[in-house]
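Checklist before submission:
- one chain only
- standard amino acids only
- sequence pasted in full

Submission:
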Amino acid sequence: MATTKKTVAKKVEPQLTKELVTTMYMEYVLEHGQRPNSVFKFCKEHNIEEGAFYNFFGSFQGIRESIWVSFFDNTINVLHKNPAYSTYPNREKMLSFFYTFFEVLTANRSYVLYALHEQKDTLKSLGQLRDLRLKVRDYAGELIEEANDEKSSRLTKNPVSIFSEGAWLQTLFLLKYWMDDNSARFEKTDVAIEKSVNAIFDVFNTTPLESILDFGKFLFKENFSRSK
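Returned file contents:
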């Protein structure tokens, strides 16, 4: 009687990628409430070669910085999937950017809150945002240059470096506001985005008073209500 050999299907391990290592790291810190003690232990726990880890990142800090860049890149990808985006005026492009960026952050809120509260030293926590800062500055700078091209007088053109840095400070403000926002669907953050973008672009158009006062009243009202 002929016998047949029983074949056991081998488990196919997913191919290691930068995105997979990033997901492993994010899940680890959320489950353990702290960073892995070492790259060696992290790789051993996930059954990957330590050398393979270094193909993508030089350290855990590299992962942390890369995560924020991926949030930005995902935002830009979503924006460009909308054919109408390229036809938006710059004010609408900036609004769309912030709305979408904070939707991406909301989808990853648990990690974002952990990452920014991990260290008591605020400056150390913000260190992971340095590559994001460059991305935001470049994005805002392109919008400013487009606006400048439409202005005939050099006197009315806006300095790109100053206003692109202003866009980064605006991002930090909105990030802090969103972190503290307890409203349903983070509706207050949406209001803050709209008012802050309108204020910034009214500065671009040299008619800032009404919009800045409106934004200032909004901030005062929110800060006052939270202090009660």
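Reviewer check: The longest helix spans residues 60-80.
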